[in-house]
Amino acid sequence: MTAPTTDLCDANEAMLANGSLRVLAPLFQAWGGRAAFAGPVSTLRCFEDNSLVRTALEEAGEGRVLVIDGGASLRCALLGGNLARLAERNGWVGVIVNGCVRDADEIDACAIGVRALASHPRKSDKRGIGQREVVVEFAGARIAPGEWCCADRDGVLVSPSPLA
């Protein structure tokens, strides 16, 4: 993990001012056994269908953070305990969901970090609909594949490259 997000913001005020360092709006709750995480971003856009979430997490994570734009839906979960365990096994450090998770206790038992809007007991559809590795925008921030994400209890940051 890199430095705390508070220190990263303090040390990179010029990047905050020019918009290259973005702070996601404080909308997210934390789950998972890893309170802080950082890594390169892989993105998904899917609405109430987590088929592509499974596809992505079946791949080697190699220390990446999966950022999922679920359209802020509060009607079903895009990540649950089975997928969190898959992420952990395959080397993902974190998952950020602009939507819901489920199986909160199972996610908490995994050594990954998870941020999501809420927990919801209903599973999502499985239609195979969505997009991978596209620019997403939510919580007041634009997030592109390959950018760098840092998250801890104070918030979530996105920057073009790792921060010091």
Number of domains: 1
CATH classification, class level: Alpha Beta
CATH architecture: 3-Layer(bba) Sandwich
Q: What is the overall shape? A: globular
| SSE sequence, one letter per element | HHEEEHEEHEHEEEEEE
The oligomeric status of these chains comes to: single chain
Number of helices: 5
CATH superfamily: Ribonuclease E inhibitor RraA/RraA-like
Instruction: Report the β-strand fraction as a percent range.
Output: 25-35%
Structural class: alpha/beta
CATH fold descriptor: Glucose Oxidase, domain 1
Share in helix: 10-25%
Mean pLDDT comes to: 97
Poorly predicted residue ranges:
none
Total beta strands = 12
The major sheet is characterized as: 10 strands, mixed
Give the radius of gyration.
Answer: 14 Å
**Distance between the terminal alpha carbons, to the nearest Å?**
11 Å
Describe the protein's architecture and organization:
With about 160 residues, this protein is of the alpha/beta class. The protein has one domain: Ribonuclease E inhibitor RraA/RraA-like (Glucose Oxidase, domain 1). Helix content is about 20%, strand content about 35%. It has five helices and twelve strands. Strands 1, 2, 3, 4, 5, 6, 7, 8, 11 and 12 form a ten-stranded mixed β-sheet that branches. The chain has a two-stranded antiparallel ribbon with strand order 9-10. Strand 9 and strand 10 form a beta hairpin. The chain is globular, with a radius of gyration of 14 Å. The N and C termini lie close together (about 10 Å).
